[in-house]
């Protein structure tokens, strides 16, 4: 992995099948873990196509092979305007949604690398912070957010479920 070239780039419509496959693997993994997250028909292929069309879809590539998908949305998450708790800031922010890792790249620290690259992306755009939410039972993501220095801010309601919300000030 050390010699591999790892890059974050905008997803293109040609990536949609591989992205959808990666998301389906994640949906199945969440189900096997006994999670309720992503078990109600969301996200789906329309979600993927919409993310790409709106310019929200990003992929982390390892030697040009798509390994991780994430949606990065600037300043726009209506659910975040109502939080049971308090955000660290009121400035511009990047929202991270729909993180999914290809099984063959799992366990290699790529989601941590993804968050490093999202921080660089956020800084390069002069944006103040990153906000993210996850299911209370998504232990892997909760551990990553903790290791990356995200602060727990409270709870938000998204897609009919209560999620733990986190924020990290970048600049």
UniProtKB/TrEMBL annotation:
Domain N-acetyltransferase intervals: 6-171
Organism of provenance: Chryseobacterium populi
Name of this chain's protein: Sortase-like acyltransferase
SUPFAM superfamilies referenced in this protein's UniProt entry, alphabetically: Acyl-CoA N-acyltransferases (Nat)
Keyword field: Acyltransferase, Transferase
Keyword GTP-binding appears in the UniProt entry: no
Keyword field contains Cell division: no
Pfam families: Acetyltransf_1
A Gene Ontology molecular function term of the record: acyltransferase activity, transferring groups other than amino-acyl groups
């Amino acid at each position: 992995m050390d010699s591999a070239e790892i890059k974050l780039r905008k997803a293109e419509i040609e990536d949609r099948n591989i992205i959808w496959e990666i998301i389906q693997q994640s949906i199945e993994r969440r189900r096997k873990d006994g999670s309720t997250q992503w078990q109600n028909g969301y996200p789906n292929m329309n979600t993927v196509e919409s993310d790409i069309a709106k310019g929200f879809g990003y992929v982390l590539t390892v030697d040009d092979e798509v390994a991780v998908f994430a949606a990065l949305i600037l300043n726009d998450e209506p659910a975040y305007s109502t939080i049971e708790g308090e955000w660290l800031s009121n400035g511009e922010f990047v929202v991270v949604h729909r993180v999914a890792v290809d099984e063959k790249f799992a366990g290699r620290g790529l989601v941590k690398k993804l968050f490093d690259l999202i921080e660089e992306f956020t800084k390069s755009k002069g944006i103040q912070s990153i906000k993210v939410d996850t299911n209370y039972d998504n232990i892997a993501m909760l551990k990553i957010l903790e290791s990356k220095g995200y602060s727990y801010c409270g709870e938000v309601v998204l897609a009919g479920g209560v999620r733990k919300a986190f924020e990290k000030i970048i600049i």
